[in-house]
Amino acid sequence: MAGEEINEDYPVEIHEYLSTFENSIGAVDEMLKTMMSVSRNELLQKLDPLEQAKVDLVSAYTLNSMFWVYLATQGVNPKEHPVKQELERIRVYMNRVKEITDKEKGRQAGQEF
């Protein structure tokens, strides 16, 4: 959208938001292409169980977040959709993994002295 003429099909005030959104979608597309270039099994084999959990949680959170955006573009209030509870559930597990990671870092730091 950068450098393009402003389309008169939508209010001028939202042009910058749409341009930013389009750039964000492009970035997500590039990340997805990168992730999809390696098989999931191949990727997970290179990671320890905690890192595997992180990949799975981030993937689930991203997918559900994208569905949240899709619902919003369809005029559905995602706050009233089960996807909200799913995102909250995933967030709980992400916090648990973070706590475990922080404990491991604390143990490693204590061993260095």
TrEMBL record:
Chief localisation class: cytoplasm
Cellular component terms per the entry's GO annotation: cytoplasm; exosome (RNase complex); nucleolus
MF terms in GO: DNA binding; RNA binding
A GO BP annotation: maturation of 5.8S rRNA
Coiled coil stretches, renumbered: none
Subcellular location: Cytoplasm; Nucleus, Nucleolus
Keyword RNA-binding part of the UniProt annotation: yes
Record keywords, A-Z: Cytoplasm, DNA-binding, Nucleus, RNA-binding, rRNA processing
Claim: tRNA-binding is one of the keywords in the record: no
InterPro entries: Exosome-assoc_fac/DNA_repair, Sas10/Utp3/C1D
Pfam families from the UniProt entry: Sas10_Utp3
Family recorded in the similarity comment: Belongs to the C1D family.
UniProt function note: Plays a role in the recruitment of the exosome to pre-rRNA to mediate the 3'-5' end processing of the 5.8S rRNA.
Assembly description: Monomer and homodimer.
Protein name according to UniProt: Nuclear nucleic acid-binding protein C1D
Species of provenance: Panthera leo (Lion)
